[in-house]
Design goal:
Layout: E1 4-11, H1 18-32, E2 35-42, H2 49-56, E3 59-62, H3 68-78, E4 83-87, E5 91-93, H4 97-104, E6 110-114, E7 117-119, H5 124-142, E8 152-156, H6 157-162, H7 175-183, E9 188-191, E10 197-199, H8 202-207, H9 209-233
Parallel strand pairs: 1-2, 1-4, 2-3, 6-9, 7-10
Antiparallel strand pairs: 4-8, 5-10, 6-8
Helix pairs in contact: 1-2, 7-9
């Protein structure tokens, strides 16, 4: 059924933010009146993430093998609906997210849809930098260079099954890129600038704006994209 969604949230020590993420999903589910489930995959937390997730109304799974893709894959394997959405624990869905996401799948060639982050409490410099990066991602998809944001994307179950799921050998850098490139071999990926989530600015505050932009979006996104693209063209 395309009117039912499994939401999978990987989480590691997210007691502060996990409830807000779950509440935002539940609010969207209530607005859209869609069949759904919310699964939090605890990736070895040492805080109260599990208690907060259950109290907020999510199903809780424990995955001790570290890695965002590992947590996503565990949640995917335990989910049950034909559309599966992956949302990071410090993200919150904006109103209308479900309706906009599901509408794309009326096109049978679309296998996955992703969108940008809107950073809470961000400076003007961060907002402008993020807008530029997400604009690049949108343009890359237009030119058939597939990209996704792993913490804000939705996929057909059959497509993710067809590529063998997420690559769990990748612990962090390049996980989004690897998934996008693999999915592009079984169908089209769309990057929708209006399919936004509100996200925490904590990494920018903790590491500094310039450093985070360089490491996450310079090395992490563009660097990993071209390395992964080469590997997908030449698997040797």
């Amino acid at each position: 059924m395309l009117d039912a969604i499994s939401f999978v949230i990987p989480a590691l020590n997210e007691e502060r933010l996990i409830a807000r993420c779950i509440w935002s999903i539940k609010a969207e589910i209530s607005r859209s009146k869609i069949d759904s489930e919310i699964i939090v995959v605890d990736n070895g937390s040492t805080d109260a993430t599990a208690c907060c997730a259950v109290a907020a109304g999510a199903k809780w799974l424990y995955e001790p093998r570290r890695g965002t893709n590992q947590a996503r894959q565990t949640g995917f394997e335990r989910s049950r609906y034909s559309l599966v959405a992956f949302v990071d624990a410090d993200n919150e869905l904006e109103p209308g997210w479900i309706g906009r996401a599901v509408a794309w799948f009326a096109d049978q060639s679309i296998v996955a849809v992703s969108g940008p982050y809107r950073y809470r409490g961000a400076s003007l410099a961060l907002k402008l930098g993020a807008k530029a990066v997400f604009g690049v991602m949108h343009a890359m998809n237009k030119f058939r260079c597939p990209t996704i944001m792993g913490g804000n994307y939705i996929v057909r179950r059959e497509a993710l099954d067809a590529i063998g799921g997420h690559n769990t050998e990748i612990k962090f850098w390049g996980d989004d890129t690897s998934t996008a490139l693999a999915l592009s071999k079984v169908g089209r990926i769309n990057f929708d600038p209006a399919l936004r989530v509100n996200s925490s600015s904590r990494r920018f505050i903790g590491q500094g704006y310039a450093s985070t932009l360089f490491h996450y979006w310079g090395i992490g996104f563009l660097g990993s994209y071209f390395i992964a693209a080469r590997r997908h063209r030449d698997p040797r």
